[in-house]
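1st attempt posting a full record on here, be nice pls
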Amino acid sequence: MKKSPVVSFSSGEYVVYPTHGVGKVTNIAKQTIAGSELELLVVNFDKDKMTLRVPMAKLDKVGLRKISDDITMKEALATLKGKPRVKKIMWSRRAQEYENKINSGNPIAVAEVIRDLYRNENLAEQSYSERQIYEHAVERLASEVAVYENTSIEEASKKLLETVSSRNF
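the predicted structure (as tokens):
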């Protein structure tokens, strides 16, 4: 029988699940499934009205992590100020790359998506799918920034938009 990993998450703590964003650990429970007892981390995502039960032994594999530290957050915000890097490939392939970056759970990769898809009012319009991906990226990063700075998602979104719009190159 394998030993459970050292529990590094506690009830009430916010965590990031790569494909779902920020959630709150509500419980660490034992449950018998198919005759074997599993220790599960119960994570609640209020926005999606979803509860996820992740086996403790699989936490590393699924990529569950704590809210980013100071260095990572500063780097993500600095990324927003950078020059957009738009590859000259078909939109469908770029869209897939953007979705993969968002679902990676890496705040720096999500910031790259925001930086690359941000459009100022005086620039060309975005397509519907571009706008959807952009808004998804802003929402994902803003939810982590909100927990990190202990503020509302609206305030965090405003900060991200102010940061990306203040870039000058």
